[in-house]
Amino acid sequence: MADIQIANIEQHPNGRLLFSVRAQASGGRMEFPIAVQDEGSAERNEVAALRSTLRFAEELAESVRLRLGL
Questions:
Q1: Could you read off the pLDDT of 1-28 as tens digits, one per residue?
Q2: What is the number of structural domains in the chain?
């Protein structure tokens, strides 16, 4: 199972927040930015970043499966 860390790294004047998502798994390490709309609290912003990360991971997994012909 991967270890996931999220850090809020930037707040933009348009209400968008930029998070750095870091994932460490047995197969390697990955770090990427995720931008979300400010939800008004740190807890809700983290949930929004996690949901966005999950959607990204699901799309990535599907693309890899298609590329591999699975």
A1: 889 988 877 888 888 999 999 999 998 9
A2: 1
Which CATH number do you get for residue 23?
A: 3.30.160
- Helix, strand, coil percentages, rounded to 5, for the chain: 40, 40, 20
Strands 16-25 and 3-11: antiparallel
Domain span including residue 50:
3-68
- For residue 9, which amino acid is it? I
Residue 10, Cβ density class (10 Å: 0-12 exposed, 13-18 middle, ≥19 buried): exposed
Burial 25-49 (b: 16+ CB within 10 A, else e): eeeeeeeeebebeeeeeeeebbebb
Model pLDDT, residue 61: 92
Contacting residues for 29 by C-beta, under 8 A, at least 6 apart: 22, 23
